[in-house]
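hiii, so i know i said id send this last week but things got crazy w the move. better late than never?? heres the sequnce for the chain we talked about at the cafe, plus the structure i predicted for it. fair warning i was half asleep when i ran it
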Amino acid sequence: MNIFRYRIYGLTIQTNQALPGLIPASSDGTVDVWVDLMGESQPPSAEVEAVSSGLNLLSKENGNYFHLWFRGDGQLDFEINSQGDRIWASWTRSVLEEVTGLLLGQVLGCTLRLRGTLCLHACVVKIAQHAIAIVGETGAGKSTTAAALAKRGHSILSDDIAVLNYSARDWLVEPGYPRLRLWPKSINALYGSEIGLERIFSFSEKRFVDLTHNSSKRQFHREPLPLAAIYILGERQEVVIPAIEPISPMEAVMMLMRHRSINHLKLDSDKQAREFAGFSRMAVKVPVRKVTPRNNLEALPQLCDLLEEDLNNIILPAKCTQP
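okay and structure toks below
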C-alpha cells in the first residue's frame, strides 16, 4: 500500500493516496492523524439521503464517531473518531481534488477541535516577524484581505483555519497549506484573471490560488510564528474609510468563541470549558480589534494600510518593554 505524509496545521497526517497542494512531511517521526481515502469503512447514509450536507454523532460498539456528509450529484462522506486521530472518506462521482478541499477545511477543522486544539475560522498573514489572524463570518472577506496583503509582499500562513498553540511566552500560529481560496471577483481585482486556476468544487466558481508560484507576491510561510494581533472583520459598510477599534478582553473572548473553527460542532462540556479558558488567556495576551471594512474591493489598499499601521503600533511598544 502506498503511504504519503504531509505537514499541516501543526499535524503530521498520513494518507493512502497522494493529496494535491500539500507540503510533504518526513517519512519518519510520529503520525498524528491517519486518513483512509476510499477505505473499507463506509459511513451509513440512508438517514441523510434528503439532506445536502451536515454533521452528526454516530454511536458504535467501539466508540463514538463524527459523521460529515455532503450531497450533490454524488455522495461524499467523512467519518472521524472521537479522539481525532483517524479519518475515513468514501465518495461517488467526486474527484480527489474536491475531497481534498473538504478534508483541508471542515473535516480537519472538526478533527483539530476533537483533539483539543484551539482554532479559529480565520486567515493568517505574516507581517514582519509576526502573524496576524483575520477572523470573520463566511463571506466577510478574510481570504480577500489576506490576498491583498500578500500582494504587498507579506506571506500567508493559513487560509480558513488558524491553529493556535501556547509556547513559552507567546501564542504561536501553525502554518496550513500553500493555497488561498478566492472568488473570481477577488482574483480579477488582485491578480488579473482566474483563467487557469483550479476550481475547488465543480459546483462552485471559487478557485485555488497557488502560493508557491514563482512570483514574490504569492508567498507561503512554512514555520510557526508568534501571534501579534487578531482582527475581526465586521459587516461591510458604506463608510468613507475602513476603521479599526480595540475591544475589551471580555468582549474579545465571546467573539473568539463565536468564531471557532466549525463552531457548530458540539463538544462535551469539559472540552468547551478548556476552549473558553484558552481564549480567555489569549485575549489577555493578544490584542483583539474590531474592523469595519468598506463595501468595495477598491478600498482594500486603505484597509491594508490600516492593518499594517495598527500592527506597527502594537509591535513597537512591545519591543520597547523587552529586556
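btw The longest strand covers residues 118-127. thought thatd interest u
miss u guys!!
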